[in-house]
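Example 475.
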Amino acid sequence: MQLSSYEDLRSQIVSHAITCEEVVRFYLERIDTHGNDNIYITVFHEQALERARTLDRKLSEGGRLGKLFGMPMAIKDNISVKGSRLTCASKILEHYDSLYDATSVQRLEEEDAIFLGKTNMDEFAMGSSNENSAFGNVPNPFDKTRVPGGSSGGSAAAVANGLAMVALGSDTGGSVRQPAGFCDIVGLKPTYGRISRYGLVAFASSFDQIGVLARNCDDAALVLGVMAGKDDRDATSSSHAVSDYFSEMGKVCVEGLKIGVPKEYFPESLNPDVFRIVKGKLSELREQGAELVDITLPDSAYAIAAYYVLVTAEASSNLARFDGARYGYRSVKSEDLAAMYMNSRTEGFGPEVKRRIMLGTYVLSAGYYDTYYKKAQQVRRVFQERYREALEKVDVIAGPTSPFPPFGIGDKTGDPLEMYLADVFTVPASIVGMPAVSVPLGFDNLKLPVGMHLICNFFEEGKLLGIAKQMQRPV
Ligand code: GLN
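Predicted structure in complex with glutamine:
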């Protein structure tokens, strides 16, 4: 069965060469025989088959076929699908069922996508390796001793292993792009507010954005187009008109394209293979007529610090709702209300989540608010100005997705600051809210994937994907 593009799959379904039920059986079989990689937290065996049969009936009766008719998808387990488990890979929500559909999920369903299940992730989307999950590690599809990236590690591994055609992830500081880079697939984080966050469990609300993991830019554009647009249930969703992404992608031409190459994205500490592969691709584009423009983004060194102050502050407030009374896990051994709150949170949350709640509470506390939180907000504003200025001169900003290839399981768990550095190139686009994508370039000497990271101006997702398409290695 053709796994690489939705267009192929759709034409096979529409021409009655295969049925949706056969497609779903094929994927479920792959999921069930794949081995214990913890990629899915929940598999929708019955629901997916039932839905496939409904779609097959619709096709035979001549009903309207949605834009994603029969597309087999996976959903990160921090996005609500009504009636199914929503764990956020946390013990605290292990037995919690969603009461409603996320707007993104509802829109995908209206266009006839099929959901195969919910994927593993770092607990509450906090992490860069999928190691902070209460449901076990996910191995990298290219080397089982290494991580798939995070926090959307399950979604990336599902697509890369052919256990879903496309997957949804969430991206707060790189959680769609970094695992896409580690798993040799495309990972798109749209402009902040492009896709409704209604039904996405909040980590850091002013950063969170649902993103798409796919094998190619066309599939990512198609799924984005379905989910994008204003939603009355999310006040931060944008009313900016949704573009025709395919026509915008078609307009992109390498000849004359101005690619901004910030020197800060190629520091001396950069892994030499990553440097060679990314620079090599840029030179190739220059030979095809693109103009490489040296730019500088001098404050880049402050990105990680500002990001971790701001997101931990927001997380500490967002996660206050998990108190043992309203959602999920409740400790049974408590004698009074205060002890119940404390024990439920102590037993329910994992170590990284606790670390962030404590950090966030600290930076928001009266004596430190101005020194940390307010300062980081000011840095955020400076970043926004710098990136706006840079994108007045160039079409796109390019660099590596990650400073190193996928690292070994356990290599960075002992040193959280070292782990946080994995996001050094993806965090800036989240700080400013601009769209960004990771696109597969090829493999290093150890046969590990290397991705290119691209940033465009607000709401230029079509152009961004068009440029990415020119860079993607042939699949
Ligand atoms: N790895 C980053 C973090 O731990 C990004 C996470 C994300 O984008 N959800 O915060």
